[in-house]
Amino acid sequence: MSSFDDASKGAKMDFAKDKSYGDYLGLDQILTVENPLDMAHDGLLFIIQHQTSELWMKLVIHELTAARLAIQSGDLQPAFKMLSRVARIFEQLNSAWDVLRTMTPSEYTAFRPHLGASSGFQSYQYRLIEYLLGNRNRALTKLHEHTPAPHAALMAEMEEPSLYQVAIDLLCGRLGVEPLSGKPEPTAWAAKQEVQDLWQRVYEDPATHWELYELAEKLVDLEDYFRRWRFNHVTTVERIIGFKRGTGGTSGVAYLRKMLEVELFPELWHVRGAL
Fold it and tell me: Is the four-CA dihedral 68, 26, 100, 254 of positive or negative sign?
């Protein structure tokens, strides 16, 4: 008997009536939708890159939604774990750009016409992540009107306070300050001096406000990795298509560079210069 047979002795081999690894993961569904229509060699890389990114983003949404609920209830320890996980997910997504950058402009050109008007700009999950974090633009929900469920999810999120807003509400409550607003922010969060002043109190006395201090750093860590993901996105696009207009109609690299200026949790960055 071979060493392989010895090692596998006792392993279940018949799954006619039981759930297998592939069944549990739904691999039949996942692995049969990867073939690009154009059949270009590098089209498969492009599709898998974006499909796996969407799967990771599904997990990000799951974690951020749960973290928001935990913060709202004042249960910060589980929220810290969830926020750390999201930061690590974006680290994973950052590494994925390294794989996509092995594709040259010539290889991308071979299948780009088959993309039509499709673009990552149209990712509803990415937009939902931004809405969850507080970077909201109601006008962009129009992109998703043709898909009722995603559009409904985005509209519902607009009626909820963002993750950062519930963090600020908690900050106010624990420092004995009236909440700034009980209403969800309908637009992108703008820096407020009074919020920066509250975070400054935390940073000037972390021993007294340790949980708030740790919450602040978890949020900064998350945004740090998110910013790196955006930067690597810009670099990858510029390396592959230069300054061509994006397939979805955006200005491509110019649009992505503009997104680098967005601050999700601005007061947490600005307070560093005030300490």
Answer: negative
pTM: 0.89
Residues 45-98: pLDDT tens digits?
A: 998 999 999 999 999 999 999 999 999 999 999 999 999 999 999 999 999 999
Q: What pLDDT score does 15 carry?
A: 65
Residue 162: partners with Cβ closer than 8 Å, 6 or more residues away: 68, 131, 132, 133, 134, 136, 184, 185, 189
Cβ atoms < 10 Å from Cβ of 244: 14
Distance CA 64, CA 274 (A): 29
For residue 120, what is the enclosing H or E element?
none
Would you state the structure tokens that stand for residue 102, as one six-digit string? 């092995």
Supply the pLDDT for residue 67. 98
| CA–centroid distance for 57 within its chain | 5
- Which CATH code for domain 21-273? 1.20.58.480
**Helix ranges, the chain (H):** 3-8, 21-25, 27-31, 43-72, 76-100, 105-109, 124-133, 148-158, 163-174, 193-204, 210-241, 253-259, 266-270
Residue 169 near residue 161, CB atoms below 8 Å: yes
C-alpha span between 117 and 99 (Å, rounded)? 24
How is residue 112 written in tokens?
């780009």
3-state secondary structure of 189: coil
Q: Which two tokens stand for residue 258?
A: 């503009």
List the structure tokens of 226: 């998110």
Phi, psi (rounded to 5 degrees) for 137: -140, 100
Domain boundaries along the sequence of the chain: 21-273
